[in-house]
Design goal:
The complex is a heterodimer of chains A (351) and B (265).
Chain A lengths: L1 E10 L2 E10 L3 E5 L6 H9 L6 E6 L2 E5 L4 E2 L7 E4 L11 H11 L4 H14 L15 H13 L5 E5 L7 H16 L4 E6 L2 H7 L2 E6 L2 E6 L1 H6 L4 H7 L2 E14 L5 E16 L5 E3 L9 E13 L2 E7 L4 E5 L1 H7 L6 E6 L5 E4 L1
Parallel strand pairs in A: 3-9, 3-10, 7-8, 8-9
Antiparallel strand pairs in A: 1-2, 1-4, 4-5, 5-6, 10-11, 12-13, 13-19, 14-18, 15-16, 15-18, 16-17
Helix pairs in contact in A: 2-3, 2-4, 3-4, 4-5
Chain B lengths: L11 H24 L5 H5 L2 H34 L5 H13 L2 H12 L6 H8 L7 H26 L3 H8 L4 H12 L1 H16 L3 H6 L10 H11 L1 H25 L5
Chain lengths: 351, 265
């Protein structure tokens, strides 16, 4: 069982071009900023938007092939979709919402409701079976929507921002529930989110898209350690530079100086290091750090219990320092400082 | 802090015309009540002519509402959901009976469905069926005039409804027909009821198209408005009683439905 899809959608100046493969039992998360085209990918896979060119094959069955003029309509695709704001039918009880799909597939009313009851039990909502959607909390509505999508036993499950509509408190609990349900689901799962934490927790594999194209793909831990775009670097909180390596020395792109890296390479590379590895000094440090750059403080922002200092270079570097250090060093916007990073803290990987 | 002195006193330029409009709308009703022959009211109301006109009016208005629902709801769906060439023309056709004098509508119906009409001659020749001057003709005339109210109201409700619910239904395996029946229709239910009430009220009061197309035969085609008009010539007191009765029926139905349905729209 697997999904193999290539989708091309053009809307005015926006062009979406995404190819995806998902193995059975695998959870792939599509991560990207708003407007990157994530939801369009889901809707194209479900057959809700007309792609300009697309080929979607699920378990060897062609659901769509624009070249061959094949297009299975949404209602006959073995695809479940959980919408961003869940969209439970407001006129039906939670139980009838879950039973709806089975009724459409020809089950009798009694059989469908019996099965729906079991699904509600599985998501821990057996006692809310007769409740109207308007009386459900956000977390409960999310679970009913998930049960409704899973009840028709789709071979491809699509989740559009499954946690975005929840408040911070319920989000943690629902996220771990969702991870559990996805682990128990045998088909292909594709979730869309713009939240890096949701993505890291849910994903077996991460696909990052920006402005309609895939910019990075890989295991969450690899993406987090080795970002390849500024967007991903910002999400995972790393300083990221492009450059050209010559041995241990990397000339940073845009005449931003040079950096010393722990392993010798040659050619185009990315250089990344965490803000916590950066130290800030009033005068040029004498210590062992190999990477030392002068700059001016462009901004200070409280980040957890640390202060994130933006030092405008070149290169422009983010540093995390304690509030005490800010006071001791008298860091003010506009002030001249030096930043230092040990070579061993710097990751360098081919571009 | 700035005190808004005008807040408690709305502008006279708006309130005075509003009051005048209210009086203007209320005065005819007051007139009816004031001139009603309260002493003979019982006798008048129980006369067989009144009873048969009332029965016929309620029957025809209800029948034409049923026909309007069966034909008008699908038409509203087509107008709201499908894109096809000539949609603008169809919508204009729906609006036409709203702006056309009902008498003209009646004449047009006669030309089409009359015994020598375009369609009527076939109905007469093949089925031996003739619509003019029958109760069925009353239903046809009332439907022609009243159905647009339903179509417009339901189309508006369909356009306002969140179409993504239909997408959800499709991903769960529902065909468009099932999605319409089990999701869309329940969601726009209040709009359909409001449209049906408007349609029924319009049909109940229909005069021009009915008298032109169906005539004025007591017991067969003479509805309340026709009876009122005729009575005005011969027995003005009876006209007042019939009018009061028509007002009472409309008010009772509208208020009753409003409480339950229209208020929720």
């Amino acid at each position: 069982m697997s999904l193999d899809a290539a989708i091309h959608v053009k809307r005015g100046h926006f062009a979406l071009d995404v190819a995806l493969q998902i193995a059975a039992g695998e959870v792939v998360v599509l991560l990207g900023p708003n407007g990157a085209g994530k939801t369009t990918v889901l809707h194209a896979l479900a057959g809700l938007v007309l792609a300009d060119a697309a080929r979607v094959e699920l378990d060897g069955e062609v659901l769509e092939d624009t070249a061959e003029r094949v297009r299975v309509p949404t209602e006959r695709r073995p695809v479940g979709l959980v919408f961003q704001d869940y969209l439970l039918f407001p006129h039906l009880s939670a139980l009838d919402n879950v039973a709806f799909g089975m009724r459409c597939r020809g089950r009798s009313r009694t059989a469908a409701r019996e099965q729906a009851k079991q699904w509600l039990q599985r998501v821990g909502l057996a006692d809310r079976a007769e409740a109207r959607p308007a009386t459900l909390s956000g977390g409960q509505a999310q679970r009913v929507a998930l049960a409704r999508a899973l009840a028709v036993e789709p071979r491809l499950l699509l989740l559009d921002e499954p946690l975005a509509a929840l408040d911070a408190g319920t989000r943690v609990a629902v996220r771990s529930d969702l991870t559990r349900h996805l682990a128990g689901y045998g088909g292909c799962a594709l979730a869309v989110t713009h939240d890096p934490l949701d993505a890291m927790v849910l994903a077996d594999r991460l696909i990052v898209i920006e402005a309609g194209s895939v910019v990075q793909e890989g295991r969450p831990q690899d993406v987090a350690r080795h970002p390849r775009t500024d967007y991903v670097a910002r999400l995972v909180g790393l300083n990221l530079f492009r450059g050209t390596a010559r041995g241990h020395e990397v000339a940073l792109a845009g005449d931003a100086g040079s950096a010393v890296v722990p392993t010798a390479t040659h050619g185009d590379v990315f250089v990344a290091f965490p803000p916590a590895a950066v130290t800030v000094h009033r005068s040029r440090p004498e210590g062992s750090a190999r990477n030392v750059w002068p700059g001016r403080i462009a901004g200070l922002e409280l980040h957890g219990d640390l202060v994130r200092v933006e030092v405008a270079g070149p290169p422009t570097v983010l540093a995390d320092v304690t509030p005490a250090a800010v006071a001791d060093l008298g860091l003010d916007p506009g002030g001249a400082v030096w930043v230092a990073v040990k070579a061993t803290e710097v990751a360098c990987y081919p571009a | 802090m700035i005190l808004r002195l005008g807040k408690d006193r709305p502008p006279v330029a708006l309130v005075a015309p509003a009051a005048l409009a209210t009086v203007f709308l209320a005065l005819p009703l007051v007139g009816l009540v004031a001139r009603a022959p309260w002493r003979d009211l019982g006798d008048q109301l129980t006369s067989p002519e009144v009873a048969s006109a009332l029965r016929l009016s309620l029957l025809a208005a209800t029948m034409s509402t049923v026909v309007s629902l069966l034909l008008g709801v699908p038409l509203a769906w087509v107008l709201a959901r499908l894109r096809f060439p000539g949609r603008g023309v169809v919508r204009a056709l729906v609006m036409l009976p709203l702006v056309l004098p009902p008498v003209v509508g009646g004449v047009a119906l006669l030309l089409v469905l009359g015994r020598r009409g375009l369609v009527g001659q076939w109905l007469d020749g093949w089925l031996g069926m003739s619509l003019p001057f029958t109760t069925a003709g009353v239903v046809v005339a009332e439907t022609f005039v009243a159905m647009p109210f339903l179509v417009i109201s339901v189309e508006g409700a369909l356009r306002a409804a969140d179409r993504r619910f239909e997408d959800v239904a499709a991903t769960l395996g529902a065909s468009r027909w099932v999605a319409f029946r089990r999701v869309t229709l329940p969601l726009v239910g209040p709009g359909v009821v409001a449209g049906a009430v408007l349609c029924w009220a319009r049909a109940l009061g229909e005069f021009g198209a009915t008298i032109t197309f169906a005539g004025n035969l007591p017991g067969r085609t003479q509805t309340m408005p026709l009876a009122v008009y005729i009575a005005l010539e011969s027995d003005p007191e009876a006209a007042v009683v019939l009018s009061l009765l028509l007002v009472a029926v409309s008010v009772v139905i509208l208020v009753g439905l409003r409480e339950r349905w229209i208020g929720a729209v």
